[in-house]
Amino acid sequence: MLFMMLLADRPDDADYLQDIYHTYYRLLYAQALKVLRHPQDAEDAVQAVMLKLTQKIHILRGLECNKLASYLVIAVRNTAINLYRQNKSRAMRQAELIQDIISADMKENPEAQALDRDAVERVKDAIRCLPRRERDAMTLRYVHNLTDTQVADALGVQAVSVRAMLSRGRKRLREMLAERRD
Predict the structure, then answer these.
(1) Same domain, 82 and 26
(2) What is the CATH number of the domain that holds 113?
(3) What is the CA angle 41-163-122, rounded to 5?
(4) Using 50, 70 and 90 to split pLDDT, how confident is the model at 6?
(5) 45 Cβ contact partners less than 8 Å away, ≥ 6 residues apart
């Protein structure tokens, strides 16, 4: 609770923020986790919100209990969305860099290009051999970049079932590709 150190000179504000933190932590963490889907990132989002709130204690004290909860949820959701965008942007830049390195390497090595095309064809063939539900789930998730919930809606199943189908599909793909390699 780094934010507590910022309020060392005003103990009543520190106590107030600590009460807010302990009262609403689970709610805030759950909201951040919904957006970020990563526990450490969700924790970072909650901590960032608490740091920002050290400057807005006068606003928090003027809010009713239900409005305070709404204010906190909106703040953590917005912070989580911003963190998600930053992470996504960073990942895209890294992917572009990796792609540039791979393409530069491929230009120098025609044999690698041919092997890479063969590998892609082997993967496509293996995907075609999957059971229909797993193939559809994998196509929607990895080709069309839908979330598990969106895939579940499209297939008319629960999100948990989608994750199970994706897991089974990946396992079968690994097995099929290992068999074809041998």
Answers:
(1) yes
(2) 1.10.10.10
(3) 105
(4) low
(5) 32, 35, 36, 76, 79, 80, 83
